[in-house]
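Re: that backbone. Tokens:
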């Protein structure tokens, strides 16, 4: 233990284990800094990530945004893919129902 300005600080020789963060976690952290204008230090502290990691995520996001402002994020691409699949399925269902309606309408005559 060492004393720093009246505080007891335990110095550990062990390194912090490297942690992996999901893209959605990183995106949310970056959004808080860029969109909401919150300080990197505060967001990093609240989310229990290192400031340097958050600064790097923000730097990468800003560079990506400047190089292609209309580029979709990974989450947006996944959502778009999912919505396109759902749209295709719904169109197929609608076509089946249209044909069934026509069939039964002709059958009743």
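Recovered sequence:
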């Amino acid at each position: 233990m060492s004393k720093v300005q009246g505080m007891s600080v335990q110095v550990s020789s062990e390194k912090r284990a490297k942690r992996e963060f999901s893209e959605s976690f990183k995106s949310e952290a970056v959004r808080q800094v860029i969109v909401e204008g919150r300080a990197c230090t505060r967001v990093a502290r609240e989310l229990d990530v290192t400031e340097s990691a958050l600064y790097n995520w923000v730097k990468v996001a800003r560079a990506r945004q400047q190089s292609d402002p209309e580029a979709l994020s990974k989450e947006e691409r996944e959502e778009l893919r999912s919505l396109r699949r759902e749209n295709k399925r719904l169109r197929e269902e609608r076509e089946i129902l249209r044909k069934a309606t026509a069939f039964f309408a002709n059958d009743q005559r």
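The two ends are 93 Å apart (CA to CA). The helical segments are 23-34, 40-47, 51-67, 74-107.
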